[in-house]
């Protein structure tokens, strides 16, 4: 109707005014895809970052012999350049740069996709804490993972198949106090800092890569960064399933991160199989009775792999070494 159209135009005018207050004079910040962001890093000068790369964990003596005899396969030579690129992006020197438009577009895209907002937000402010960073500046929380921590968030929210999962996890992370009364059993709060948890998971994935625990899967697929992203999403899915089903709280985060460290290093294939199953079930539910997609890739997870279902009760005794500002507990 004419009245509805007039109201719509007035609302769009309000949005434009608000956007003008938030955006820089150059205009609105467009969303950026993961591939476009990756192409930027592929062509950027990361020479200083590359100098400090320690591609693999160095072992000596008996540890080196055990690794040679029983350890995972080494990453094939043709994939080492892609591995080094991922590790260079993860260097502290590649942290968030206010003067780099691609960095700002990545940050704004993560914000918009998680909050479903059409408006950009200020570079600094309490809104980042609501997203799950520790303070008003997201850059301070990327010290342990560099821009790779933000890139993996970007992958999570820009892939059409994983975005619904990202929204579910983000919603759980925002868990609010439920109504309580003397007659009801208190309900524990399940909220947690989404972005800090994400950075911790990226850190675990980097550890697994450097210890060559992901080399077998990278060699099989002839890809590195795609495998890193899939393991990251699969680890987040595992955490979400345990957190929700077992009513975990922030007090349990260290325990769960230890479990994730063990899974990413010892059973990455099992994690990926669980993610594949989840995505297949999600696609089937959306299709509402339509036939499952053919074998091949679901997102970037090969659906032809075999493996056991993920056991959510396993716990390892490994110690997680979380870095600096990214530490949860």
Automatic annotation (TrEMBL):
Residues 102-268 form the ELMO domain. It comes from the Eukaryota. This is ELMD3 protein. It comes from Casuarius casuarius (Southern cassowary).
């Amino acid at each position: 109707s004419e009245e509805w159209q007039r109201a719509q135009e007035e609302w769009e005018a309000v949005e434009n005014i608000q956007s003008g207050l938030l955006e820089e004079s150059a205009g609105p910040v467009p969303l950026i895809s993961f591939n476009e962001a990756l192409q930027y890093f592929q062509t950027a000068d990361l020479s200083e970052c590359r100098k400090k790369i320690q591609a693999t964990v160095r072992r000596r003596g008996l540890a080196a012999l055990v690794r040679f005899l029983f350890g995972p396969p080494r990453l094939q030579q043709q994939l080492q350049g892609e591995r080094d690129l991922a590790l260079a992006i993860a260097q502290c020197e590649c942290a968030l740069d206010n003067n780099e438009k691609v960095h700002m577009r990545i940050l704004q895209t993560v914000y918009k996709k998680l909050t479903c907002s059409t408006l950009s937000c200020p570079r600094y402010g309490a809104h980042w804490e609501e997203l799950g960073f520790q303070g008003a500046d997201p850059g301070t929380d990327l010290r342990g993972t560099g821009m790779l921590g933000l890139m993996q968030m970007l992958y999570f929210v820009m892939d059409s198949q994983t975005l619904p999962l990202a929204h579910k996890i983000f919603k759980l992370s925002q868990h609010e106090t439920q109504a309580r009364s003397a007659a009801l059993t208190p309900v524990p709060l399940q909220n947690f800092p989404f972005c800090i948890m994400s950075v911790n998971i990226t850190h675990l994935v980097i550890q697994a890569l450097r210890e060559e625990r992901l080399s077998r899967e990278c060699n099989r697929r002839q890809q590195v960064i795609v495998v890193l992203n899939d393991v990251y999403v699969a680890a987040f899915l595992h955490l979400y399933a345990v957190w929700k089903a077992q009513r975990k709280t922030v007090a349990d985060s260290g325990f769960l991160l230890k479990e994730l460290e063990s899974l990413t290093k010892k059973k990455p294939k099992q994690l990926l199989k669980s993610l594949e199953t989840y995505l297949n079930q999600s696609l089937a539910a959306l299709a509402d009775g339509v036939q499952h997609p053919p074998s091949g890739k679901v997102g970037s997870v090969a659906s032809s792999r075999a493996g056991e279902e993920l056991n959510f009760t396993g716990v390892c005794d490994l110690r997680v070494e979380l870095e600096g500002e990214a530490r949860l507990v």
